[in-house]
Structure formats: C-alpha cells, structure tokens
Design a protein that fits this description.
Number of strands of chain A: 17
Strand content of chain A: 15-25%
Structural class of chain A: alpha/beta
Shape of chain A: elongated
Oligomer: homodimer
CATH architecture of the largest domain in chain A: 3-Layer(aba) Sandwich
Radius of gyration of chain A: 27 Å
Low-confidence stretches of chain A: 1-26
Mean pLDDT of chain A: 84
Strand order of the largest sheet of chain A: 8-7-6-11-14-16-17
CATH class of the largest domain in chain A: Alpha Beta
CATH superfamily of the largest domain in chain A: Translation initiation factor eif-2b, domain 2
Order of helices and strands of chain A: EEHEHHEEHEHEHEEEHEEEHEEEHE
Chain lengths: 276, 276
DNA sequence: GATCAGTTTGCAGGTATTTGCAGGCTTTTT
DNA sequence: AAAAAGCCTGCAAATACCTGCAAACTGATC
C-alpha cells in the first residue's frame, strides 16, 4: 500500500461581517435551493432586489436575474426592473358579469382615443370607466385622478400611468370616495379631461344621478375640467333620475356605442355637444 | 495439510480528518447500505451534493448519481443538478395564494380583539392586514382609515364600518397611497389604534422596510396613533431590511402567531412591548 | 475450488447545464 | 442630458450528466 496525498478543492464563499470577522461558507447552494430561497424571500417581504439577493447568496447578479426570469416564467413571482414582487399580492377584479359589456367596450375605445400623452385625466367610477381603463393603450403616459377603487386597480396594471387617488369617506354603494375633502381635492386639479360614467341623461333634465354624494363629486369634476366627456350606453340616453348634476351644455362630448349620426343623438348635437 | 499464505486484498478507504489523522475504513458499503446512508444524509441536511457523497463514501460520482437517480425514481428524494434535495423541501412550495395564511389568520384574530366599538383605527396594507379586515366581527362599529386599496375593499364588506380612504399618489409596488398629502392627512387623524403590517423587525434595527415611501406612511401613522400595534409572522421576527421606520420602543404591542410566552419574543417583552 | 450469468462499478468520451463576465443596450434617476 | 443602475446577448470555463463498455464483484451451481 502506498500513501496518497489528497488534493482537495474546497468550494466556499468568504464574507466579512460587521465585526471584521471573516466567515467562510463551505457550501454552495444548488440552483433549486437558491430559487426556493428567493421565492421564500419574495413571499416574506413582498419584494426583493436582485442586488440584495446576489449579496446574500453570493452569486452574481446575472444568476439571480436568470433565476428570477425562470421563476417569473413559472408564474411564481413577478419580475420587475431591479428585482421581483410577490405574486399573491397582485389582485385583479374577478370579472363579474358586466351589463352590456360589448357596448361599453366600444365606448371605451372611443373614449381612449381622446387621451394623449401627458394629460391629466379625472374619472369617476362605474363599469364603463373600468372598461375605459382596460382599453387604454399600453404605452400611454398620463396622470389619472380617480375616486374609484376599482378604476384605480385597473389603472395600476398600466406601467406608465401615474395614479392619484382622491381620498375621503368611502361610499359603499357607489364604491367611490365622496365628501367635502374629495370635492376640494378634485377642484385643486387642473384636469385636461374628465370622463363621467353616466347614470342618466336627457336634453331637458341634463345629466342626472340617484345618489347625492356622487352628484357632488361629479359636479366638482365638471367644474374643474377643461373638457368634460360623458360616457353612456344608448339605453340610458333620454332617461332621467332624481338628482340633477348639470345641464347638457356643460358637457363637451357625449360618447355612446352608436354612430354619431344616429337619430337618437341628434338632439344632443343640436344642443352643441360633440357626439362621438 | 500444508501451510498457506493467504494473499488478502483489503478493501478500504483512507480519509484525512481535521487533526491530520489518517482514518482507514476497512470496508466498502453495499449498494443498499450506501443508499440508506444517502437517504439519511438527505433527510438530515435537506440537501446533499454528489461530490460530497462521493468523497464520504469513496465511490465515484457516477455511482452516486446512479443511486440518486434510483432513489429519485422511488420518490424518496428529489434529484437536482449537482446533488439532491429532501422530499419535504419541495412540499413547502405548494403555492398557497397567501403566504403563511394560517399564521396570519391567527394574528388577525388576536388583533381584531383589540378593536372596540367607536374606535378610530389606522391601518397600512399587506396581506396580514387583509386577514385582519376579514376577521373583524360583523357587528363592529368603527371607523377605519386606510391607505390600502385592498384593505378598503375588504372593509367595504362590513356593513357597520365607516371607511376613510387616505388619498394621494398610488404606489404600484406597495399598492397603497403614498406621498406628502397622505402623510399630512394621516397626521390629522387622532387614531385610537394603528395596525402596521410589518416587513421586518428586530431589537437592534427596530421596525424596517424596503420601500422609502411606505416607511414615510408608517412613520406618519405611528406619530399620530395612541396605540401602535405591529403585526408580523414569527418568521419575520429578528430580520431586518434596508430602511428604518422606528425603534421598537415606539411600538406598543407586538402580535405574532406564537404564544406570548415563546422564547423568540422574550427580548421584545424585555424591551417593554406588550406581546400578544 | 471453479465456473458462469447477472449485477455493480469506474472510466472514457461526448453532451448538456450552469455560471460569471464583457460589451452594448435600455431604463431609471439626477 | 448625463450618469448610474439594471438588463440582454454571446461566450468561455467549470461542472455535471449520460452512454457504452470493460473490469470487478456476487452468489449460485457444478
């Protein structure tokens, strides 16, 4: 038997901690381990930075990025510039049955075409406004002011849109914020455009509502916006409710799913509205 | 009978230990022994490297690989590039929507018990706060101030709760409103209670966050609330992040899913916190 | 003790994966 | 607009893996 010298290559990482002690870690993480760790951190803290992970695990940022990309492919987290976000946190509205969805989508398309980069846009709530939020072009850069929770959630899916939520008491009926604070805040905004989800409109009573607080919010929006756009399905045209918001003259543009030439809308054209 | 010389070939392995002693092992392992040993190591350490096992057992890496492949076929471990992981390691990944939901529900129960009729309550965002919102007793009459869209939506399901949404710029990361306006509004509230969804807490760094804007909102809440309650799963206890929110002394009550008597929490008790 | 089929093991080679890095590009921030 | 940070592509080194194959071992039988 002959004596053997063993040449051992040790794999380790060295780390200098806050007390200037040198810690050696005599192991490497397996890829899967690493990914599990990353996922764990993401779930724990909702958000991680590639740079941090790279330091913690002692691998290059490239490797972290590759891991994040892989995990994102598997839908286990959401990759963002500089790191990743946890998945479970991301809520989207479960598509409840929206009444007259197709019509509202047509309206949304028309409305979206009015918005240009850099604009300040005020919006109310309502399902038509939600469709508008969904119909926005992905690259649109604009600032949206809204009182609607659900609309805000939709806007959040757009990377280039800045969202200002108008705060105040939350109305459980209308699912928007209402009250004096909200009105005051709205009036401070110099908005280029204002989209009103419309409850009822006709030529004699103007725009009408069935909720006092919502009316007040809309009034505030109308008073501060350069250009007021009312969105409504044709079915609501020439109907009215109890509470008056404004005359039709205060509305600049009326959008329905119908052709602008439609008979039903001629009265509004005559009244000076821009019908789309 | 004539005398025989036996030529014996000894099978052994040599190993140099930490004291420079040379250990000889005068046996080889049978295949089954080896696999049992591997399984043992995997279950013990949750992970093994083929290279390590090969050195320990003194067989070629190919053999180890074959063993691992076999054991993986039997479902007794999980083969990965470079080694293997224990079974349990992978199970924990089973994607629950909310991470550590059960723990958070326990925390929510404890937290909900602190709220009494007529109180003004401030809350941040985060999944733990959502669970708190769900855990609120149906007949509770209170006023909730929140910066979180998702929390607001949950509160809306409670008929007797008044919700004040704090408005401002909406952070897409944190899904809460952030900014100077929001901070100012928060400070106007004289809240009885403040619930902080907590990202990381430890005794030396205090409460820490990974988002500057979120930190500011939390600071504002802490400054205005009578009683500050931090909610956190035990896993986040004694961890820290980049951005400091406050010292632990500024927190009145700490709620985790653990028993208040738990060892882990004793340092916080010592620091004067009320641990639940 | 010898033989023999079947299994196990190590090795040689060729292939696939993983990782870090450089260079150029894009996004974000200042 | 410049600077910084992050990202992507391609590349090379290291490592791990796979496929045969031959040597060695097992244990069963003659």
């Amino acid at each position: 038997m002959k004596c053997q010298f063993l040449l051992v290559r040790l794999r380790f990482s060295a780390d200098i901690n806050s007390n200037n002690q040198c810690l050696f870690r005599f192991f490497i993480m397996l890829k899967k381990e690493r990914q599990t760790y990353i996922l764990h951190q993401v779930n724990l803290h909702n958000r991680v930075l590639s740079a941090d992970l790279s330091q913690e695990i002692k691998v290059s940022e490239d490797t972290i990025r590759r891991d994040l990309a892989e995990l994102a492919d598997q839908g286990r987290l959401i990759k963002v510039h500089g790191g990743a976000l946890s998945q479970g946190y991301h809520l989207s509205l479960n598509a409840q049955q929206v009444y007259a969805l197709q019509e509202k989508q047509i309206i949304a398309q028309k409305a979206a075409s009015l918005i240009q980069d850099g604009m300040f846009v005020l919006t109310t709530g309502g399902t038509t406004i939600i469709e508008l939020a969904r119909a926005l072009p992905a690259n649109l850069k604009a600032t949206f002011f809204t009182v609607s929770l659900t609309a805000a959630i939709e806007y959040m899916h757009h990377p280039n849109i800045e969202i200002i939520l108008i705060g105040d008491k939350l109305s459980k009926n209308a699912q928007i914020t209402v009250g004096g604070e909200a009105q005051a805040k709205i009036k401070q905004v110099k908005a280029d455009l204002c989209f009103l989800g419309t409850n009822a409109i006709d030529t004699t009573h103007g725009l009408t509502e069935n909720d006092w607080e919502v009316m007040q919010i809309k009034k505030a929006m109308i008073s501060t916006a350069q250009h007021v756009v009312a969105l409504t399905i044709a079915e609501k045209v020439n109907t009215s409710q109890r509470i008056r918001v404004c005359d039709i003259q205060e509305i600049n543009t009326l959008i329905t799913e119908l052709s602008p030439e439609d008979q039903l809308l001629s009265a509004y054209k005559k009244a000076g509205l821009n019908v789309m």
